[in-house]
Amino acid sequence: MPLTPEQIAAYHRDGFVTAHGVFAAEATALQNEATRLTGLTPLIDTNNIRCRWQDHAETGECRFDCFDPVIDISPVCERIARSPILSEMAAQLYGEPAFLFKDKLIFKPPGAKGYDMHQDYISWDSFPESFLTVIVAIDPSDASSGATEVFPGYHQQGCMSPRDGMYHTLKDDQVDLSQGVVLELQPGDVAFFSGFTPHRSAPNQSGHSRRLLYLSFNASRDGGDIRTAHYTFFHQWLQERYAEYGKTETYFR
Fold first, then answer.
1. Which residues pair with 66 in a beta bridge?
2. Which residue among 141, 182, 191, 225 is least crowded, i.e. fewest CB within 10 A of its CB?
3. Cα 222 to Cα 204: distance, rounded to the nearest angstrom
4. Domain extents for the chain?
5. pLDDT in tens, 177-216
6. Does residue 106 carry a pLDDT above 90?
């Protein structure tokens, strides 16, 4: 199911595009695998930099939210991440071969806060400007469960925050909030968006988790297969940031 010319044009115009049912046949396997992964309690530790954490929107309780990376501990996620259909779709958007760059699974349990407005691109010297993200929906994703909300057209401005190698949120007045598009997805649907597309997500106010597999790619022109090099740098960068706050016993497992 390659992307149509209309979908490719929409991506370049708006900075995002959705495709429905791409992994419908894999949806149950992904759901079961996401459940299995939450049972890997030896890995879920605040010192393990594979793990991400998110506060409960009302109680402030800090809870496990994400594995990054995930494909090295999940054969099912790796099968999806390295599927020919995804690399072909990304290649269509690039007009050249695409390479898997990053992978994570965000669980977003009920009550979890969302993410403030930001762009995924970070101005490290090694970070590819061709970076794009693919969401593979594991659970239904809509406004009530805190679906990703994208803001079309702004990707054409490139990086909208300081190019200082740090993560930045965007101010609400940098985009027209009335133009936001909530990416409503069913299990097995996919959505692509540019690393320069501003996006955010609201708290999960539903009674179920909103699990999404986030996969990122880079174009061949940006170094080819640089996933391993990225994670080597990223882990060092994370540990340095944690150390700035006195957290010096971090590790990756």
1. 52, 106
2. 225
3. 35
4. 5-244
5. 999 999 999 999 999 999 999 999 999 999 999 999 999 9
6. yes
pTM of the model: 0.96
Name, in order, each residue with C-beta under 8 angstroms of 193's C-beta and a sequence gap of 6 or more: 15, 16, 17, 132, 133, 135, 148, 150, 155, 199
Please classify residue 8 by burial: count the beta carbons closer than 10 Å to its beta carbon, then call 0-12 exposed, 13-18 middle and 19+ buried. middle
Token pair in block for residue 50: 């594979």
Q: Which helix (H) or strand (E) holds 17?
A: strand 16-19
Residue 3 near residue 74, CB atoms below 8 Å: no
* DSSP string across 66-96: EESS-TTT-HHHHHHHT-HHHHHHHHHHHTS
Q: What angle do helix axes 5-14 and 84-94 make, rounded to 10 degrees?
A: 60
Q: Are 91 and 97 in contact (CB under 8 A)?
A: yes
Q: What secondary structure letter does DSSP report for 185?
A: B
Q: Edge-to-edge strands of the sheet including 148-150?
A: 181-182, 148-150, 199-201
Total length of the chain: 253
CATH homologous superfamily for the domain 5-244: q2cbj1_9rhob like domain (2.60.120.620)
Instruction: Please state the φ and ψ torsions of residue 232, each to the nearest 5 degrees.
Output: -60, -45
**Amino acid identity for residue 79 in this structure:** R
